[in-house]
Specification:
single chain, AtuA-like ferredoxin-fold domain-containing protein, AtuA-like_ferredoxin_dom, 3 helices
Amino acid sequence: MRLRELAHSRTGDKGNTSNISVIAYKLADYPHLARHVSAERIRACFPGLSIGEIERYELPALGALNFVLHDALAGGVTQSLALDAHGKCIGAAVLDLELPDA
């Protein structure tokens, strides 16, 4: 199953840092997300991209995981020549992550 079947995403960026939240549709699915959506799995969503440290924050009361991707935006919105390598594109790529069935 794809991550998008269990969760949605909110994203943002500031400078060269991207912020991705993965939020379970149902709180009961949060433990499955917490088990299978790691910083390493998030990094694997972006082969070929040079991404620095990825921090994962757990918000179990909200059924959410928050990932902070440092050095992830080719210098940031004002420096990057990439077409929309920010925000919504990154969240959509994460939601394609393949997970074991819940």
